[in-house]
Amino acid sequence: MTIPDDGEKSEVTHYHAAPQRSTIGNAATQHGTNDGAASQRGGTPAPARARGPHPLPVFLATITAACAGDAARLGRVLDGVRRYQAAAPAPPRPRRPEVARIGAVALRDHGGHGPIVVLVPSLINPPDVLDLAPGNSLAAALSAAGMHVLSVDWGETEAHGLDAAVAERLVPLLAGLGAPVALAGYCLGGTLAMAATALLGSRVRRLALLATPWHFSGYDTAARAGLAAWWAGAEPLAQTLGSVPIDLLQPAFWALDGQAVAAKYEALAGAEPDAVENFVRLEDWANGGVPLSITATRDLATRLFADDASGTGAWSIAGTRIDAAALGLPILDVVARRDRIVPPATALSANGPGTPLHLDAGHVGMVVGRRAPALLWAPLADWLRQ
Hints:
With 386 residues, the protein is an alpha/beta fold. It contains twelve helices and eleven strands. A nine-stranded mixed β-sheet has the order 1-11-10-7-6-4-5-3-2, sandwiched between helices.
């Protein structure tokens, strides 16, 4: 089925790195973003820094290329950037209670009564987008729909790669709940949730994949080549830094859809005040976070993007092959048709098992857009309750 969405939002990634004090023009004032208060993983305070986008020179090159010589459009985009930079930060979200922890990774409790549903966010992005704001929270919607909702907080950077994130963190945390659970993984969190399900067997009763890449060969040749070139240049710098700050990751994601990056700021230039507030909350989320480990980034760039280990069935963790076709449980594969970060061709159900639910939305709008309650929250709640 296809459900339309008229509330598309930002489609970039999340980072935290050294302060950067550049702004666009004199109209922009300096603000520490709300990532300084709570939008690192788990709400851990971060040093205040000027509002993004970061790194600014790469961002300017991206939007200039997207505008392709259209000076009037570039001016509108820059007006939107100024408006974002000058806006006050949104109040931080409260930190949810911790119910279990292994290393830096915790399970947090969003309340509710009924069967347990665990939300698994991307390892790259903090979990804030799944509980973004009062009235705009997938976690709260599922809780209100009769489920006990927990979420994974990946916490501070740990040195391990994707396999250890699954086998040494996610799997034991889920097994420790002592009852079969439903999982709902968003973006790369869905990829990791699929791997965890293969290791957990009957302890997972249902699996929902939300804008989740599985067949990485579904990215076009230019995107995969660009990611490979980015990692070839970024890895030596990451080795020097000891990790991969999201400022270093950000250009790789901007490159997937520079037009969308320019378009959202162009739209902001003429937006109503309430739309600006919503934009600021989401974009501050998108412009804050903690670094990714070098090993996890290498796994993402080489084993998944380059080799498509998941899509080809070549991915094994702790001696278990991650075979989606052998899981033997209901899988809902939610695919955003306008997603450039995780294109529909990369979805599990594009060439494999899973019941597809196609939404006319983008990567982030499907979760927090104005029509997200009808687009995703309600159908997902109905499916998880079955």
